[in-house]
Amino acid sequence: MSAFLFNTFFRLLALLPLDILHGFGALLGRLTYAASAQYAARTRENLRQAGLTADEAQYRDMLSATIAEAGKGIAELPWIWGRPYDEVLGRVRECVGLEHIIAAQQHGKGIIFLTPHLGCFEVSALYAAQRVPITVLYRPPKLRWLEGVMRGGRERGQASLAKADVGGVRLLYKALKRGEAIGLLPDQVPSRGEGEWAEFFGRPAYTMTLAGRLAESSGATVLIAYSERLPRGQGYVIHVEPLQLDFAASVPQQVNAALERAIRACPAQYLWSYNRYKIPRGVNAPEARIEE
Asked: pTM for this structure?
């Protein structure tokens, strides 16, 4: 698809109501699951590995909901990125834990938002950007002509993007030094030398160390934040919880434990299809179990 055709189609989709896009997304999720054996197998394996269901019937129900929610996450992007900023923020029905953001601003050492692949993570940064300048680390898309659409949708309010490279990390440090906020995807698998093995739902996962380094060097407040997708296109609820880190212990393990707590509150909206347990190139395979 050419850049012109994609942009035209994207703009047309953005005109549709959110509930229609979510309905289409649920269908898209099921079609994708049926079409890709690898995608389907990874979704099933990761969800079952987490051990969040009491029996097989409950597991099947959650799997079905997970498949639908993953599709909604794709279908809602034109609406999130293409609608006016104020209209998108208007669909945030509540921010549970807003007081933690306010307290962090008063602390004045910066804020590190850790937002996992849970719910509509695109909305979380846009919501934060109305209250505080925020620099979000991102990986450019493989199709270069998609980057303009993505940046246009994400860099709104007081939000800016920093590429996931050395230069981008410097921008994060500078933002925290100014007392601003930064955003990271803490469950994104880092490259060799940028992570360590830590248990995630009982299985070793290569986990970024960057969040801990930034927090320790800056004294910034660390917040776990995610956006719960409400049914029938009603909007979103932002959830924010503080994370007190013990730098004498494994920070990646503490982060993963906090992510688990957030995911358990909204398990069907986690992106279980993501290859969270992959072994990055050049990284030695983990031991069978991480030592506590």
From this structure: 0.94
Largest CA distance in the chain: 53
73-113 per-position pLDDT tens digit: 999 999 999 999 999 999 999 999 999 999 999 999 999 99
Residue 182 burial by Cβ neighbours in a 10 Å radius (0-12, 13-18, 19+) = buried
Predicted confidence (pLDDT) per residue in 190-199, tens digit: 999 999 999 9
- What is the rounded distance in angstroms from the CA atom of residue 88 to the CA atom of residue 105? 23
The dihedrals phi and psi of 141, each to the nearest 5 degrees, come to: -65, 155
User: What is the spatial distance between Cα 131 and Cα 233, in angstroms, rounded to a whole number?
Assistant: 24
Residues 6+ apart with CB under 8 A from 129: 156, 157, 158, 159
97-134: b (≥16 Cβ within 10 Å) or e: beebbeebbeeeebbbbbbbbbbbbbbbbbbbbebbbb
Other CB atoms within 10 Å distance of the CB of residue 250 = 21
Full strand arrangement of the beta sheet holding 181-184 = 92-96, 236-242, 221-229, 111-114, 181-184, 134-138, 159-163
DSSP string of 67-114? HHHHHHHHHTHHHHHHS-HHHHHHTEEEEETHHHHHHHHHH-S-EEEE
The whole-angstrom distance between residue 139's C-alpha and the CA centroid of its chain comes to: 13
What is the DSSP track for 19-48? Answer: HHHHHHHHHHHHHHHHH-HHHHHHHHHHHH
What count of residues does the chain have?
Answer: 292
| Nearest-5° Cα angle at 217, 250 to 259 | 40
CB 67 within 8 Å of CB 33: yes
Q: Please give the sequence-ordered ranges of beta strands (E in DSSP) within 215-284, or none if there are none.
A: 221-229, 236-242
Residues 6+ apart with CB under 8 A from 259: 114, 116, 186, 187, 200, 224
Contacts of 278 (CB under 8 A, 6+ apart): 189, 206
CA distance 74 to 91: 17
Q: How many other CB atoms are found less than 10 A from the CB of residue 237?
A: 18
